[in-house]
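Milestone 3.1: sequence recovery, worked example.
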């Protein structure tokens, strides 16, 4: 009888472990992780050269996208959005996507901070 109780106890413990650990989140794809790293480094490089701050304060997303294209892999599409009081969310129809959020403070002429969101995607 004690053996039967032990078996039932072990089954209950094993069922608890299975229930707890089977619903894990899937791991992200490695290429989107590398996109995020490349996007973060690109934003940092432009920020250190003060080009990102100047273009963000002037809401010049075309210049930001043009400068970022030389840093990002050639097989992905990208779009930059400069957020002030509100932030528009684009609709991207892609198989894989990633985004990088980068915050900058204002400068001497304009003390408001900005958030720059870099969206990256690919349909490959």
């Amino acid at each position: 009888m004690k053996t039967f109780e032990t078996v039932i106890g072990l089954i209950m413990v094993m069922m608890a472990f299975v229930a707890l650990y089977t619903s894990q989140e899937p791991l992200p794809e490695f290429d989107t992780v590398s996109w995020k790293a490349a996007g973060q480094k690109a934003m940092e490089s432009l920020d250190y050269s003060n080009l990102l701050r100047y273009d963000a304060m002037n809401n010049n997303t075309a210049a930001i996208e043009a400068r970022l294209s030389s840093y990002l892999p050639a097989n992905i599409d990208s779009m930059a959005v400069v957020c002030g009081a509100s932030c528009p969310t684009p609709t991207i129809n892609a198989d894989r996507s990633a985004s990088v959020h980068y915050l900058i403070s204002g400068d001497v002429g304009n003390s408001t901070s900005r958030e720059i969101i870099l969206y990256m995607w690919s349909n490959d």
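The two ends are 61 Å apart (CA to CA). The CA atoms of residues 93 and 123 lie 8 Å apart.
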